[in-house]
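Quick one, T. Sequence first:
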Amino acid sequence: KGNLKDGVEVSFGISVLKGTARFYINGGWLWVDLSATVFGTVYGPLKVKLIPSRSEDVAKFDPSLLCFD
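Structure tokens:
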């Protein structure tokens, strides 16, 4: 639950691997922050710029259109 303006966080855990991925909009781009623990070793956070939003002008971008329930 959430929106991309405030960030949507997804947690994962499989055997010896667990972590989080947080998706959010910043500067007109979709970003993901990844953090993981593998065999007790912590990796991240790693910030990855994914794709630009459809609007070049961030002031015109309405993040409420990207809500998840």
